Every structure is written in C-alpha cells, then in structure tokens.
Amino acid sequence: MATHKTRMLIIGSGPAGLSAAIYGARAMMEPIVVQGLQPGGQLTITTDVENYPGFRDVVQGPWLMQEMQAQAEHVGTRMMWDTIVSVDLENGSPFRAVGDSGDVYEGETLVIATGAQARWLGVPGEMELGGKGVSACATCDGFFYRGKKVAVIGGGNTAVEEALYLTNHSDDVTLIHRRDSLRAERILQERLFRHPKIKVLWNKVVESFEGDPLAGGLTHLSLKDTVSGDMSAFHCDGAFVAIGHAPSTELFKKKLAMDDGGYLLVEPGTPKTAIPGVFACGDVMDHTYRQAVTAAGTGCMAALDAERFLATSKFEKEQVPESTW
Ligand code: NDP
C-alpha cells in the first residue's frame, strides 16, 4: 500500500477530469487522476459523437476518450487504475482519499469529476433480469440481440440514440415513452421517425419486466397505458432502459452540499465547492447541460481555480506575520 502525493488530485476520468488534468499538468501541478469504475466515463459507452468541436466527421466515444487520456498523460498526468472508496475533507488541504486498492492519495487540491450514471426504473424484474435481457447500454449489449426484437424505454437523446444504434443489430426496435412527445433534439427525432426499423409506443410505462432469469431471461414487458390505464404485454428479447442519469456523489454525502437530485452544489458560475481547495466539475455538478464539451469546460475551470488556490495559499504562507516586524 502506497501513499501518492500531488498538488492536484482528480477523481474521475471523463471529459471533465481529463480536461482538468491537461490544464493542471500544464500548470506544473503534476496531477493524479484516479480513474474509477468506468475509466473514460460515459462517452466510453457511446458510439457516434458528432457534436464535440474539432471533428468534422463523426468520431467514436471510446476513441475520443483514449485521445483525451493520451493528451493528459503526454503533458504529465499520472493515471491510477483505482477507485476511491473514502475521502477526508474535514481537515482541509491536503485532502486525503483512500482507494479500493488500499493506496492513499493526498492532494493539495481536490477536483471531483465523478460524473453520473444510468438511472433505472426501479420496477419488479429489472434487477433480476439485468444482463438477462435488461440493460442500460445498447452499445455494450446491443450485439447480443442480433436479429432479435428489442425495446428502448425513454424519450430523451440517450433513448433515441440507443434506438438508432440498435438498428445495426435488430430489424425490430420499439421506443416506449411515457408521454406523447419526445424531449430528444429535433434532428434525432427526425432520424428516429424516418427509420424503417423503428416503431414508437406512446403513453406507456413499464410496470414490470417479466421472464425467468435462470431460463431464457426476459420474455415480455408489462405495460400500462398512461391515458387509459389499460395493461398490455409487450414481447421482446431485449429491453434497454434509457431514462437519464444520476450523479455519482455517494462518497460526498454529509461532506459537501448537494441539491435534491444529489448533484454537488458549487458557487454559481464557478466549480468551487464550499470547501476551499475542493472543486467539482462535469456531470457531477451539472444537471442542466450534461454535455462532453460543457464537462470539459468546467474541468478546465476547476484546474484554473485550483492553480489560483495554490498560488494564493503559497502567497499567504510566505507573508511574514506582522508581530515579527
Ligand atoms: P433526459 O433526462 O434528457 O431524458 C430522460 C428521458 O427518460 C425523458 O424522456 C423522460 O421522460 C424519461 N424518463 C425519466 N424517468 C422515467 C421513468 N421513471 N419512466 C419512464 N420514462 C422516464 O436523459 P438523457 O440520458 O436522454 O440525456 C441526458 C443529457 O445528456 C441531456 O442533456 C441530453 O441532451 C444529453 N445527451 C446528449 C447526447 C448528444 O448530444 N449526442 C447523447 C445523449 C445524451 P419525460 O420526457 O417524460 O420527462
């Protein structure tokens, strides 16, 4: 078990964490990035990315994250294959964090970029049939449903993208949404409605996922019509839940202020938390925009503010106390 010391400790390795690392490394803060359970973050389970500036052609999410990591390492970031399991923020800088490996990390500043993860419906059968027909990642699991009938639940960008992606594997994709209109961007909606392999079921909620986890997995969804209240069975081989995300803030409960959704609260317009030297960036503090490019932007802001924090603390320490004049 080792202790790793740095001027900037970053928890999380998505666009926010890696952008903070790139800026931090270039400011000679020798950052350490603790990668977490999903190195590269949510973009690693996405396929096409066509709205990250700088790329005229579509790029792949995993590729983009590999490039960001390579850039961060190239300028001097240390990447750690570990997951933080506890943090000590009470005693101020340096902040101490312990990894799953037993290693200890000490950062003069701390950048929290733990992101968000897929939300689940929380209905019967969902967990039991997880990996047996129920999934929250079409990119990861779509391949298993080659030539089969699949459903996607949700009406946002993620759900529409998942449905479109699944047409690479299946000729029979149904989007199931609880209302009669989608919140996904217009351009995605148009692609969805035009697609010959996709149907949409409106005003339906999933009451349960049915099937035997030990024999054959998912067989059907039990659906309720939100207008008539009628129940129906929707038979399919795979169901992909795509209803948004929840921030990964378990580590910071009772340590940092959060809103009702569990997102970290920061000083408006900055990545500063209430603890000097601790910054939050990316999806963990942003439930409004949640884009790779906005996450990268706030990661940059966190690194700049961390640098300023260190410069100010150094200046304050170097001041000769008045009493000794
Ligand atoms: P969103 O929060 O945008 O959408 C969630 C969807 O799930 C909504 O349609 C919502 O319905 C539905 N939903 C939520 N809870 C339930 C429930 N309990 N039962 C049934 N349906 C439910 O999440 P996304 O993951 O789609 O997107 C998150 C953010 O990431 C957005 O800002 C999005 O723009 C962005 N994004 C951007 C992409 C891109 O630009 N390429 C790709 C993917 C995401 P309702 O509409 O009724 O509230």
In brief:
It comes from Tsuneonella deserti. This protein is an alpha/beta fold and 325 residues long.
What can you see in these coordinates?
The protein is an alpha/beta fold and 325 residues long. It has six helices and 19 strands. The protein has helices at 15-26, 61-74, 138-141, 157-166, 186-194, 292-318; strands spanning 3-11, 32-34, 48-49, 59-60, 78-80, 84-88, 95-99, 104-112, 116-118, 134-135, 149-153, 172-176, 198-201, 204-212, 217-225, 231-235, 238-241, 245-247, 278-280. The strands form five sheets. Strands 1, 2, 5, 6, 7, 8 and 19 form a seven-stranded mixed sheet that branches. The protein has a five-stranded parallel sheet with strand order 10-17-11-12-13. The chain has a three-stranded antiparallel sheet with strand order 14-15-16, with no helix packed on it. Helix 1 (15-26) runs parallel beside helix 2 (61-74) and helix 1 (15-26) runs parallel beside helix 6. It starts with a strand and ends in a 7-residue tail after the last helix. NADPH dihydro-nicotinamide-adenine-dinucleotide phosphate binds at residues 51, 121, 154-159, 161, 178-179, 183, 205, 243-245, 290.
Largest sheet: 7 strands, mixed
State the CATH class of the largest domain.
Alpha Beta
N-to-C span: 45 Å
Instruction: Decide which structural class fits the backbone.
Output: alpha/beta
CATH superfamily of the largest domain: FAD/NAD(P)-binding domain
Query: Do you know the CATH topology of the largest domain?
Result: FAD/NAD(P)-binding domain
Which kinds of small molecule does this entry bind, naming each only once?
NADPH dihydro-nicotinamide-adenine-dinucleotide phosphate
Number of strands: 19
Number of individual domains: 2
Oligomer: single chain
Total number of helices: 6
What is the global morphology? elongated
Strand content: 25-35%
Extract low-pLDDT stretches: none
**Gyration radius, rounded:** 22 Å
